[in-house]
């Protein structure tokens, strides 16, 4: 047994030296059962071969990132409370933007709660451009929950903008569907296995098509949106221009964070969390409060909710006209 123990394969995996190896000892040719002359312990020196074996490295958030997620969650919660208060103080038919904003903030709040609690995150293989990259496999934490958030919140933010401009339902739908495509393409790009070159190329391919969708969305808003807004009252037109330019600039920073984070791995996961957190707060909370405070309802527009939508019938029965053709309209 002692004799056999000498031929046990040994495997050494080290993380710190840049050249990890697995050493496997191979039995000498001709078997080892016969004692040979010359060897110290009666057999030939063992031929050994060295096979490189890859080491995995995980790039993930630390306390700083987790704390940032909790802080952003708290900001969205406080912002939502503020919007609820503003909603209560507003006439029902003027609550379209309040309703949309409350929905946006609620979704963001839930999404940040989930991410802070460690949900909605996966490790995705990314390409290692460093020396001996093929021996050091990198896995980067990817918070895909934010794409689920964007899938719902970005169409809602765009709905606010297109309603403010009074853009046609057909064009508004085109803007929203293009935006949905942008988010889904971004999600696929961030999740694709990019360990090898072709995977990395696929990731940038998704990024490029998503950016094209982004440009279409803003192209429509800056042309058709501006034109539609020019027919609105001066205040509304000014607010639309302000929100469209401001929102475009903020949204344009998202692909930059993606390129530096999920794309090229130039910034760490904490920095990515903080960058997206700041952008999300400006794009949602900043947008909401500018819209709710600066929008005046003195003009009737596409944002004015119809009576049947906001008012519960005062009479008896589902439509307020009594039931089974009864004449009375109120229950006594
Ligand atoms: C991705 C990656 C691929 C290229 C582009 C992107 C754009 C993302 C945007 C996100 C906006 C999010 C907002 C969230 C909350 O309020 C998907 C990052 C163009 C514009 C406004």
Automatic annotation (TrEMBL):
Recorded hits in PROSITE patterns, A to Z, give: BACTERIAL_OPSIN_1, BACTERIAL_OPSIN_RET
Q: Give the residues annotated as coiled coil.
A: none
Biological processes annotated in GO: phototransduction
Give the residue ranges for region: Disordered.
Answer: 1-45
**Record keyword Acetylation present:** no
- Sorted UniProt keywords: Chromophore, Membrane, Photoreceptor protein, Receptor, Retinal protein, Sensory transduction, Transmembrane, Transmembrane helix
Q: What GO CC annotations are associated with the protein?
A: endoplasmic reticulum; plasma membrane
GO MF term (any one): monoatomic ion channel activity
Gene3D superfamilies according to UniProt: Rhodopsin 7-helix transmembrane proteins
Q: Does the keyword rRNA-binding apply?
A: no
User: In what ranges is there compositional bias, type Low complexity?
Assistant: 21-32
- Membrane-topology annotation of the record: Multi-pass membrane protein
Compartment annotation: Membrane
TM stretches of this protein: 68-88, 100-124, 144-166, 173-192, 204-226, 238-261, 273-294
Identify its protein family: Belongs to the archaeal/bacterial/fungal opsin family.
Q: Which PANTHER family match?
A: BACTERIORHODOPSIN _OPSIN, NOPA (EUROFUNG), PTHR28286
Protein name, UniProt field = Uncharacterized protein
Organism of provenance? Kwoniella shandongensis
